[in-house]
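Batch 3, record 17
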Amino acid sequence: MAEHPPKVIVTKLGFDGHDRGSRVVAAHLRDAGMEVVYTPPWQDIPTVVKLATEEDADVIGISSLATDHLLLPKLMAALRAAGMADVQVVVGGIVPPRDEKLLLEAGVARVFHPGAALEEIAHEVRALAAKARALRETAAP
Amino acid sequence: MNKPAAPFQSDELARAETRWREAFEESPGADTRIVNRSGIEVKPLYTPRDAPRADSIEALGYPGEYPYTRGIYASMHRGRSWTQRQLIGLGVPEDYNARLKEILAHGATAISLIPCNSVYRGYDADEVPEELLGTCGVVINSVEDMDRALEGVPLERLSCGMNDPSPFTLLALLLAVARRRGLAWTGLAGTSNQSDCLSHFVANHMFFRLALPGARRVLADHIAYCNERLPSWNPLSVVGQHMQQAGATPAEAMAFTLCSAIQYAEDCIARGMAADAFLPRFTFFFDISISFFEELAKFRAGRRIWARLARERLGAKDPRSWRFKFHAQTSGVDLTRQQPLNNVARVTAQAIAGIFGGLQSLHTDSYDEVFSTPTAEAARIAIATQNILREEAHLTDVIDPLGGSYYVEALTDEMESRIDGLIARIDAAGGMYRAVENGLVQRMIGESAHAFQQKVERGEQTVVGVNAYRIEENLDGYRVLEYPDRARIEAQIARLKRFKAERFAAAAHGGLDALARAAQSKDENVFARVVEAAEAGATHGEICACLRRELGFGQPLTIV
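Prediction for the assembled complex:
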């Protein structure tokens, strides 16, 4: 049976609406053969958690250009509370070095900065999707 | 035979060009094809044969004369420098006030006000996640907040540019403050930046609050109101910057912006306003990418096209209506997080292109915008860059110094024809509103963004430090801006709650009810009711909530 392609949600939390990055990345991941669920900006945490559950997502990609990444610790906690700790979360955009450490400590798998190559993002997301599935299988009874 | 002989007979010119071409074709690099961001192939050499209009008075005019290719004023920067309008806004109103007074003391002559992202989304501080308050702009929700933000600032003497999208609550709060201070509204000068709802729907959803039809109506109401009551206020800034930052090519950004301006003007004319009554108060706002010659040609071409559109298509007879006044900002998208100090060089090149392009107002980005909202130190370098270019490098000694360059004139012509072609395409799609409602413009911009990214990834477009000249570096040493103090944010929320509790509630609610009725009516001026509601004590969030209910909440189209 053919392996189901990685399933990735590409979204933006909070108030910012600059979406060039999320659109370009979403289009590239789709072209790279992944199943991409793309949302408009301004999502809140419960909506993203619900979407991840319904879509059985492997990876959530959050684009943040204007400090919305400060909501990430709350998103990570909400995913754990919903029993979705296996879902891998990546962030792309403008994240000060100081904040990157906080995000990684909160459980974010990877922060992509401006200049990250699309190929590199796709490669990493694919690897993280495999990790999410492995975690899920280990956890399954 | 009273015509003097041309310095070159055309066949002599042709022979010289043939000789040069033969030599060039044997040289290294002869088969390199170069195409600019707008898709125009750039030749290795331009000669008089490429720029037949380089000395045409019809095509260029003199500075201050139709079609304004060489500049909209007779003296341009020789007479008066551009406005150095750096964007500021952070934290709570007191933080903003301190920063504003500091930059005014350093010689700034204009106020800019960037509100918090929660304000852009249409909310008050007491209805959003606290982490995000004041991190990218100042929290202003009430007339008291605005009063504190502008405490001790002589409003009557400074031009005030506010990022204030539909329904223009910040202007309403400013008017309420002016009334409290006994200032005549007719004396207030400034611009409602981010009033261009089409650009927000297309490209920068940051500023998009109301559904498009409602935003369209409120904008026309706002222009009509300002036209009548605030003669020194620019109610509209038509924005190409968002679209170019989102990936539009320079030609696309210029074309789409002009198409939006046409739609707004036609809406005003449809309401019975005369073109010459409102067009002199139309302003524009553009991005300056690092594609140097392309950018300055974009501005020269844009001026010429706007003059023609205003005169011929919109029927304006007053030369002030034909003048293409624009603010420009150096492109943040071109900046890199890698080797961040290199951004100072990028901003310098961008700024020169804008200055040679004849801008009226300039914001130079800070090199550290790749990390956070700028630190004060980086913002000072950005301002100094402008001062150095003007006063040390003497860029402004001569008006339109690149005018007459074979390349610049040929490129201006080519950009013009490309922009005209794009305008015709949008016209054929039914105008800008139709073209964005059916996603055409967003698709074109998305494709251009993707194509540019591919060029970078394939190495066809060098980005120093990203796909070339890379180094190992540790960025931990760069200082980034501190987030606002949490205690001050909490105090701000408490103050807002107190304001709501202590105001004359019946008046505030009455103002909001009247606003709702105006929105339900067909012909009442909605913005006039926004102003009255603000004066009656209604807050920004309450006004936006009312109009969201009545006119619908904006959602961007999701095209990937």
